[in-house]
Amino acid sequence: MASFDVTVSRAFVSLALLGYAAYSDFKTREVDDLVWIILCATSTPFVLLQLVELERRALLAYVLSAYLAFLLGFTLSAFKLWGWADFLALACIGLTTPPSAEGGYLSLLPSISTLVNSLLISCTYPLFLLTENLYLIARGERVFEGVEASLPVKVIAFFTLRNVPAQVYLRRRNFYSLAERFEGGKRYITLRIGVEEEGETKPLPNRVWVSPYMPFVTLLAIGYAIHLTAGCLLDRLLLAPLAY
């Protein structure tokens, strides 16, 4: 019973602080580093109480989960595939979440389970972008007017980019990166992966194509909540056929 209380208390603290970080990330695309310090500091007593009760196999899983969280998070951040806050969020999840004895192989590694859940959830985002872009066309917006782009690039743009008024982009540059380049008096759609800082912006047309920054801390928080309640979704998908 005491072990259960410790687990629930730790999970509550983690979810509360991750929930705040998720809200901040969703609203501003920024998270104060102090959140991660508080998360680790408040979770440490609960984590230590759980670690002393873990069997060797579970303890090794905890170490591996924490190591992979740092390795993957730092690598993705170093290659600018996501931001610094995303790395810190995953690292904190790896450090503050001992594994449970239930679930499949991925569920035994909380950081990986959380990351996989988050990635699976993020797969729905291109469908949202497609719906939004098709809606713009349906209401008469000429989203490709004045833009040089091949058919494959246009198709990819429908699933990965947003077409917004230039003033929206300029007002919310921490939410978007410009997905256009200007050469020889022509506009071209630019497809790229990663988070990049932008320099000065030239005069823009009324509407521009932008690449939205995904609130991945928010997705990690959702993925973590799913991990705590259902484990790794991929485990469930892979194990479901074996249940029959």
- What percentage of the residues does DSSP assign to strands (E)? 5-15%
**Quaternary structure:** single chain
How many H/I helices? 10
Number of domains: 2
What is the topology?
Blueprint: H1 2-28, H2 33-51, H3 56-78, H4 84-96, H5 110-122, H6 125-138, E1 147-148, H7 151-160, E2 162-165, H8 166-171, E3 176-178, E4 180-183, E5 186-189, E6 207-212, H9 216-230, H10 233-239
Can you describe this structure?
The mean pLDDT is 89. This protein has 2 domains: 1-123 and 215-240; 124-212, no CATH class. The chain contains 10 helices and 6 strands, in the order ααααααβαβαββββαα. It is mostly helical and 244 residues long. The protein has helices at 2-28, 33-51, 56-78, 84-96, 110-122, 125-138, 151-160, 166-171, 216-230, 233-239, and strands at 147-148, 162-165, 176-178, 180-183, 186-189, 207-212. A hairpin with a 2-residue loop joins β4 (180-183) and β5.
Short descriptors:
60% helix; three-stranded antiparallel beta sheet; 10 helices; mainly alpha; 244 residues
Would you summarize the structure shown here?
By secondary structure, this protein is mostly helical. Helices cover 60% and strands 9% of the residues. It is built from ten helices and six strands, in the order H-H-H-H-H-H-E-H-E-H-E-E-E-E-H-H.
